[in-house]
């Protein structure tokens, strides 16, 4: 048990760990905001314009490479680029 305690103390202070945890939660909040602003495709037709981003069913974020894009990345791969 002492070995575990020593290893924890040597790997960083509690204040450093707290700072790391805060940074992780800040990143989670940033990602939540990004995902909240993405277009989500549903069964209805959405027309997306050049530069619009959307979250596709495969979990990836795509950016439209054309105006008036009504096709999915599966139907028209050239109309999309993966951004994340």
Please give a structural write-up.
The structure is a single chain. The protein has helices at 2-10, 14-36, and strands at 39-40, 53-55, 61-64, 80-82. By secondary structure, it is α+β, with helices and mostly antiparallel strands. It folds into 2 domains: 1-37; 38-84. Strands 1-2-3-4 form a 4-stranded mixed β-sheet, with no helix packed on it. The longest helix has 23 residues, at 14-36. The chain is elongated.
Quick summary of this structure?
The chain is an alpha+beta fold and 84 residues long. It has 2 helices and 4 strands, in the order ααββββ.
Number of strands: 4
Helix content: 25-40%
Rg, rounded, reads 21 Å
Q: SSE order in H/E notation?
A: HHEEEE
| Total tally of structural domains | 2
What percent of residues are in strands? 5-15%
Major sheet characteristics: 4 strands, mixed
| Count, helices | 2
Secondary-structure blueprint:
Blueprint: H1 2-10, H2 14-36, E1 39-40, E2 53-55, E3 61-64, E4 80-82
Parallel strand pairs: 1-2
Antiparallel strand pairs: 2-3, 3-4
Key attributes of the depicted protein:
4 strands; four-stranded mixed sheet; alpha+beta; 84 residues; 2 helices; 2 domains; elongated
